[in-house]
Amino acid sequence: EAGVAQSPRYKIIEKRQSVAFWCNPISGHATLYWYQQILGQGPKLLIQFQNNGVVDDSQLPKDRFSAERLKGVDSTLKIQPAKLEDSAVYLCASSRGPGGPNQPQHFGDGTRLSIL
Amino acid sequence: QKEVEQDPGPLSVPEGAIVSLNCTYSNSAFQYFMWYRQYSRKGPELLMYTYSSGNKEDGRFTAQVDKSSKYISLFIRDSQPSDSATYLCAMMVTGFQKLVFGTGTRLLVSP
Fold this sequence. Notes:
The complex is a heterodimer of chains A (116) and B (111). Chain A has strands at residues 5-7, 10-13, 19-24, 31-37, 44-50, 53-56, 65-68, 75-79, 88-95, 106-107, 111-115. Chain A is mostly beta strands and 116 residues long. Chain A is 0% helix and 47% strand. Chain A has no helices and 11 strands. Helix content of chain B is 0%, strand content 58%. Chain B is built from no helices and 11 strands. In chain B, strands 2, 4, 5, 9, 10 and 11 form a 6-stranded mixed β-sheet that branches. Chain B has a 5-stranded antiparallel β-sheet with strand order 1-3-8-7-6, with no helix packed on it. In chain B, strand 9 and strand 10 (100-101) form a beta hairpin. Chain A binds chain B through residues 4, 31, 33, 40-45, 48, 55-56, 91, 93, 95, 98-101, 103-110, 112, and chain B through 4, 6, 8, 32, 34, 41-46, 49, 51, 88, 90, 92, 94, 97-99, 101-104.
């Protein structure tokens, strides 16, 4: 079973520029998550999709961050304009459904974003 | 106060030692408790999970939950250099898939 694919692996941009990340979940997984992991901290959920609908985006800074999951498969996360505090690893995860740990979340290796 | 507290370490032990990793939490609604392992420049991978209070064993790993104290632990027996990683505790309220993570404890096992 192929894992969660993310690209790019690394991205360096200047503040106020825009950036986009891409995620391809495990085949058949209906639920997709985007997390932000700042250095020295645990992952923080930004947004959760169930198929192509948003379940939870309460911690997404909506003035600069946006995400979509067209056709209920791949997803993109965009930041525009980027701020210095957005420097972090952006992790995508997927699970078969929105249930408990019997449907565990599988993580990709993330995109490491550096803001200059 | 953070919902989940975890000592960031690093915790350095010699090969073969018993390792104890711990988290405390404040939200009594948490029912599922998980431990993830994260190698450098990799995503987290689920090691174990427990539901409510009690113990669970899987090979060299044992997870314990004490809901009365709001305290969870992960024990690693006969630690190996390959166990060197960051260990993240995570918790979930029943019925919701939202995971709340601790900061992670970095473990270094020296040969």
